[in-house]
Amino acid sequence: MVVLNKIYTKTGDAGETALGDGTRVAKHSMRVAAYGTVDELNATLGMARLAAEGELDDRLAAIQNDLFDLGADLCTPGMEKDADREYPPLRIAESQVLRLESEIDGMNAKLTPLRSFILPGGSALAAHLHVCRTVARRAERISVELATMESVNPEGVKYLNRLSDWFFVAGRIANNDGKDDVLWVPGANR
Q1: What separation, in Å, do the N-terminal and C-terminal C-alpha atoms of the chain show?
Q2: Global model pTM greater than 0.90
Q3: Which of 40, 147, 161, 189 has its CA 20 to 30 A from that of 138?
Q4: CATH superfamily, region 27-183
């Protein structure tokens, strides 16, 4: 259980922060950048949810919860020590990745295949979901870079990869099942 009685602690005033295992690192460390970008994605998703309703909003709420799981995963280094810990840290599981894949397949089955790239936009919800897609891609790039330096849960990286695809397909659903997609016209303004 989390209890937040005091919001500011002053422990980060010198440019360091604590990771999930208590280790102190610079606020500009790659690990902090990874989970910070996941937090940014979650806030961006909160904006998208203002335009969502019904089943799509329910799925977005589930993703927001997953993103907190992913933030907890990324802020706790040392996956190789998980089995020896008294309280194993929260890690993204394969089942969360598989759920995204299943939802992508279900949404995509409703859509006409694309014959052109689409521009981000159409409805307000679709535009927000495309912003989420690009922030998810950035979080993925940072997490992949972090994985070249330190251990990172590979399921977390897979989750971000699938999530950006999920946002793309959901953006098409938000555009009247793709009927209102804005198509790219190569060289249209030459």
Answers
A1: 58
A2: yes
A3: 189
A4: Cobalamin adenosyltransferase-like (1.20.1200.10)
